[in-house]
Amino acid sequence: MTTPVRVIPPFGRALCAMVTPFTEVGGLDLDGAQQLADRLVGEGCDGLVLSGTTGESPTTTDTEKAALVRAVREAVGGRASIVAGVGTPDTRHSVELALAAEKAGADGLLVVTPYYSRPPQEAVEAHFREIADASALPLVLYDIPGRTGTRIEPETTLRLAGHPRIVAVKDCSYDFLGIQKVLARTELAYYAGCDEQVLALYAVGGAGYVSTVANVVPRQFRAILDAFDAGATTEAARLQQRAIPLVESMMAAGLPGTVTAKGLLARLGLPSGPVRPPLRPADRETVDGLLSAYQDLTSEK
């Protein structure tokens, strides 16, 4: 059986887009973050992405972002990679965050397309290059046009692939054709940022995933990749399909993944805390439904 060409994943295969735990009064809960990080790594995560979309980066301060990296690094040591979200609509601010994350102990940087201002592609490219030039850390492009309003077009990605520190993409573009065009022509590591696409992207040569749903079921998502790597492709497909009801409940039911992940984590007695405004917590009925989907997935022997 021929397997796709796969680059060595720079941050591991199984990454979790970790929530940022807060205290009941809304402060940063570093103890909770350390407990959650330790659990995630113990359950199979190769890496943790901090201060991304799921980590509520728009509502955490620069100081909190750096403190979170330091605390999680202390908790996981060298057992897992840490990728710090540093993307903002402001190139200068993103550079500042990149340098702070490097100093705090991150292994890599997650940089989202500048949002709201909707820059043209040449400006998008210049934004990423300036951040990549400013730090010694490898950089992950975060392509999520549904939130930013601006795509990283495949041709732009191909040009950026020539930069020595731009090594990966977290993909939420829903452009499977464009992904494969870039995969075929570069050595960029592509991580599925949409949980329903984990196996599909991995099967065509992707590096793995950066998953929100893995906050609650890290072992079950890792098992999809493990089965595929073992040649058990039918089993990998079964595992992916079994996860879909929980994925749909958490990611496609009208609430942001941060809200559903924190609601379910809290019900499971795991560190999470409230979301910060403008987000609002999930109601009891929603969390009941999430718990039911979680139990259905995790009850299988």
Automatic annotation (TrEMBL):
Reactions performed catalytically: L-aspartate 4-semialdehyde + pyruvate = (2S,4S)-4-hydroxy-2,3,4,5-tetrahydrodipicolinate + H2O + H(+)
Location of the active site: 142, 170
Keyword annotations of the record: Amino-acid biosynthesis, Cytoplasm, Diaminopimelate biosynthesis, Lyase, Lysine biosynthesis, Schiff base
Record-annotated site: Part of a proton relay during catalysis: 53, 116
SMART domains: DHDPS (SM01130)
Superkingdom of the source species: Bacteria
Binding site residues for pyruvate: 54, 210
Pathway connected to this protein: Amino-acid biosynthesis; L-lysine biosynthesis via DAP pathway; (S)-tetrahydrodipicolinate from L-aspartate: step 3/4
EC number of the protein: 4.3.3.7
Role this protein plays: Catalyzes the condensation of (S)-aspartate-beta-semialdehyde [(S)-ASA] and pyruvate to 4-hydroxy-tetrahydrodipicolinate (HTPA).
The name this protein goes by in its record: 4-hydroxy-tetrahydrodipicolinate synthase
Organism of derivation: Streptomyces chiangmaiensis
Source species taxonomy: Bacteria, Bacillati, Actinomycetota, Actinomycetes, Kitasatosporales
Gene that encodes the chain: dapA
